[in-house]
Design brief:
It comes from Stenomitos frigidus ULC18. One of its GO terms (molecular function) is glutamate racemase activity. Its EC number is 5.1.1.3. This protein folds into 2 domains: 162 residues, 3-Layer(aba) Sandwich (Rossmann fold), CATH 3.40.50; 108 residues, Rossmann fold (3-Layer(aba) Sandwich), CATH 3.40.50. The chain has a 6-stranded parallel β-sheet with strand order 4-3-1-2-9-10, with helices on both faces. It has a 4-stranded parallel β-sheet with strand order 6-5-7-8, sandwiched between helices. The chain is an alpha/beta fold. 46% of the residues lie in helices and 15% in strands.
Length: 287
């Protein structure tokens, strides 16, 4: 009888969702990779759209946001949280790992390791906060001390993507200005230092030499999550429940932006940000 209760508890733990968060729709690039590599896992996705962009905020603010989100994720019963946000990973991961009992994974180290497997002249495009932290530079040089690293802060990318301006000529011009110093350094590898940036892949491919390899840390962080679930014996082996999408801003705006990337229009809940995040707001669902 005790064995049956233990089996039941283990089954519930394994079926618990993975939490995944970002400032907005950028984390959907990580979510799509999670669907590919871990198709049996259920997910709670949180987009902190009321407070984006993170990349221009002070480190203390980012740390506060991350603590609030992780507290909420714990209350939702997640078994693991993936920071699908490079800014959070760069500025808050080490601080919060010791504060929470559930495993918390970030993008920087997996992305850095993937980059050095591709080349030695490595460019990183990132939010200003991530670039200023030099988190990728440190992680890349730790993985391979012979590598050379150039980081460029790109303050306009996230607002342009969140405003659905991917096909705007202005976006191409801005991308050209950000890439120019990296092209001059003859990089052979470019790291997406923000989960929003894979949306820009067609533009980046148009502007970069064909010899440059693009590295998406999403692939590596989900592979790391899969290994962690194996080590903790927490992989779910049953069909998942539908992904729960929550945002701190407008559900309708998020749903419209997310639909082309997800291939469907998600139902999105509004969750109150800051200290009241434990309770959902009056639901303004987008369907």
């Amino acid at each position: 009888m005790l064995e049956n209760r233990l089996d039941s508890r283990n089954t519930r733990q394994n079926a618990a969702p993975i939490g995944l968060f970002d400032s907005g729709v950028g984390g959907l690039t990580v979510l799509r990779e999670l669907y590919r590599q871990l198709p049996y896992e259920s997910v709670i996705y949180f987009g902190d759209t009321a407070r984006l962009p993170y990349g221009t905020k002070a480190p203390a603010q980012i740390l506060q946001y991350v603590r609030e989100i992780l507290t909420w994720m714990e209350q939702q019963g997640t078994k693991m949280v993936i920071m699908a946000c490079n800014t959070s990973s760069a500025l808050a991961l080490e601080a919060v790992r010791s504060e929470f009992s559930l495993p918390v994974l970030g993008l920087i180290l997996p992305g850095a390791r993937a980059a050095v497997q591709q080349g030695r002249r490595i460019g990183v495009i990132a939010t200003p906060a991530t670039a200023a932290s030099h988190a990728y530079r440190h992680a890349i040089l730790e993985a391979d001390g012979t590598a050379q690293v150039w980081e460029v802060g790109c303050p306009e990318f996230v607002p342009l993507i969140e405003s659905d301006r991917l096909h705007d000529p202005y976006t191409v011009a801005i991308a050209q200005s950000y890439l120019e110093p990296l092209i001059q350094q003859q990089i052979d590898t470019l790291v997406y230092g923000c989960t929003h940036y894979p949306y820009l892949a067609p533009i980046l491919r148009q502007l970069l030499p064909t010899s440059v390899t693009l590295v998406d840390p999403a692939v590596s962080v989900i592979a790391a999550a899969a290994q962690e679930l194996d080590l903790l014996a927490l992989k779910n082996l049953r069909p998942p429940v539908p992904t729960r999408f929550c945002v701190s801003g407008s559900p309708r705006t998020f749903s419209q932006l997310a639909a082309p990337w997800l291939g469907c229009t998600p139902i999105v809940e509004n969750v109150i940000p800051a200290h009241a995040m434990a309770q959902p707001a009056a639901l303004e669902s987008a369907d």
